[in-house]
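Design request, tokens follow.
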């Protein structure tokens, strides 16, 4: 019984080591001899500067953003106080009236 557990442990360790080696292996730097390299595609960028992309977005004053955040905090505090005063499942799962939208699934 002990020998069988030891064999399974060694087998599991070997499979884990092979998987780790395959996952951390560096990619080959040279393409295959018969394959021509394709034209380079532009890299997709997640964070793109709107000015560099040609999209002009209007700037929103920081005061307007702060007012929206304060309004959101007030609405959330009012919702929490009403839930504490009269806790029900309907209040717990109801949507907020805030424009930021706390979505409940």
């Amino acid at each position: 019984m002990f020998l069988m557990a030891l064999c399974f442990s060694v087998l599991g360790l070997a499979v884990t080591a092979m998987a780790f080696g395959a996952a951390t292996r560096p990619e080959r730097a040279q393409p295959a001899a018969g394959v021509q390299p394709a034209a380079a595609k532009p890299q997709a960028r997640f964070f793109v500067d709107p000015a560099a992309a040609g999209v002009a977005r209007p700037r929103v004053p920081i005061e307007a953003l702060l007012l929206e955040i304060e309004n959101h905090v007030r609405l959330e505090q009012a919702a929490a106080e009403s839930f504490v005063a009269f806790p029900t499942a309907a209040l717990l799962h109801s949507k907020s009236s805030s424009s930021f939208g706390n979505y409940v699934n």
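Comment from the thread starter after seeing the answer: thanks! DSSP finds four helices and no strands in the chain.
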